[in-house]
Amino acid sequence: MLITQTKDILKTIATEMLGEDNTIVTEDLANLQDIGNELITQANVDTYVKKLVDKIGKVVFKNRLLNSTAPSLLVDSWEYGAILQKVRMKLIPAEENSAVNLVDGQSYDQNVFHQPTVTATFYSKEITFEVPISYTTEQLKSSFNSESELNGFYNLLETTVQNSLTVKTDALIMRTINYRIGKTFTSGLESQKVNLLAGYNAVSGKSLTVSNCFQDEGFLKYAIAEIKNYQDRLKLPSSIFNDKKEEAFTPVQNQKLVLLSDFKNTVDTHLIPVVQNSENLTLTSETVPYWQGSGSNFNFEDTSKIDVTLDTPKETAKVGGVIGILFDDEALKVGNLTQYVTTNYNAKGDFYTNYYKELSGFFVDLAENFIVFYVG
């Protein structure tokens, strides 16, 4: 074990803290902290005979369970059958009420059959992947001091596998969202694409840009008001907020609002604390730090961007400045999520391999309400 005398550095620190002028000087911090080595080196021997290898006194496993951070799109699963069938019915048109305008001698036919207009959509695609990992027992016993330490290592492996599954499932959920954003810009209606920056500049007479609009209090208030307006608009039947132009409405309890963290945190920290009646500015939403990726340093240009290919190689969507989406909870679903494990023992190598498998369906309904808020 390498033991370093700290007399000199402590003397320097005392001079900086207690000296006459408290002058800050260059401190030599080499060998003061231990940043670790991946293998035991010559420094890991005793200080007496310098031949005995230091014994490991404690084993610490970095064993943290990763919680899902993707928007909540998961729905129930089913054990039998493969296809999801979604049935919807069009609103029934009104007819004249004859009871208030009866005519003598007129026949009123009540035996007319009124067939409901019903459509069914079938979802039959699923995706799957697996995460393999191999375990040994006898070969590992020499590396630990007790059975509890060995079990701790196995628990670390299991947690890491679960974290890997969480990361991959979250990524696929976000790709479902990005697909829907992309479809909105390639085949959606103009009423589904809300440019908050252009709208604010038009009503205010200002010329804000993407780079400075988040610092403008007026823009933040306008953006919140517009989002709230659309939450109210979705509650009424309309055919202008979905790609299929279907009559649809979304009650408040069925609405999902997902905002980019950059925007949501700016509102919460820059605007709400300085405005009276700030509860009117609160947006109840889930947040994401980025839609597709962080880039090298979480620049807004990167976090607010998607770049995706959709149903054909020619159908692409490159969209920037996306700060939020508002949609019906039936518009996007992750269903029939099934996770299971199969195990194989290799007798020659004396190891087990577990295959952690996942099967799920990611459903997008273009006939349900979906709105994208962006700045550009």
Polypeptide structure, described:
With 376 residues, the chain is an alpha+beta fold. It has a domain at 127-374. It contains six helices and twelve strands. The protein has helices spanning 7-18, 147-187, 196-204, 217-233, 261-271, 300-303; strands at residues 84-89, 118-123, 127-135, 193-195, 255-260, 286-288, 306-309, 316-319, 322-328, 332-346, 351-364, 370-374. The protein has a five-stranded mixed beta sheet, with helices on both faces. The protein has a three-stranded antiparallel beta sheet with strand order 3-11-10, covered by helices on one side. Helix 5 (261-271) links the parallel strand 5 and strand 6 (286-288). Helix 3 (196-204) packs across helix 4 (217-233). The radius of gyration is 31 Å and the shape is flat. The model has no long low-confidence stretch (mean pLDDT 83).
Mind sketching the topology for me?
Blueprint: H1 7-18, E1 84-89, E2 118-123, E3 127-135, H2 147-187, E4 193-195, H3 196-204, H4 217-233, E5 255-260, H5 261-271, E6 286-288, H6 300-303, E7 306-309, E8 316-319, E9 322-328, E10 332-346, E11 351-364, E12 370-374
Parallel strand pairs: 4-12, 5-6
Antiparallel strand pairs: 1-2, 3-11, 5-9, 7-8, 9-12, 10-11
Helix pairs in contact: 3-4
